Amino acid sequence: MKKEKKTIDSLMTEERRFPPPSAIKANAHVNSIEQYEEMWEKSIKDPDGFWLEQAKSLTWFKEPTRGLEYTWDTKNRKIEHTWFADGELNVSYIMMLCKKIEDHGIRTVLITDEFAGRDGASQSLADTVPQADALISVGNANEMVTLPPLTRVIGDLKPVESIAGGFDGCLAASGGVDIEIQAIIGATCQLGFGKLSAQGY
Question: What is the pTM of this model?
Answer without folding.
Answer: 0.42
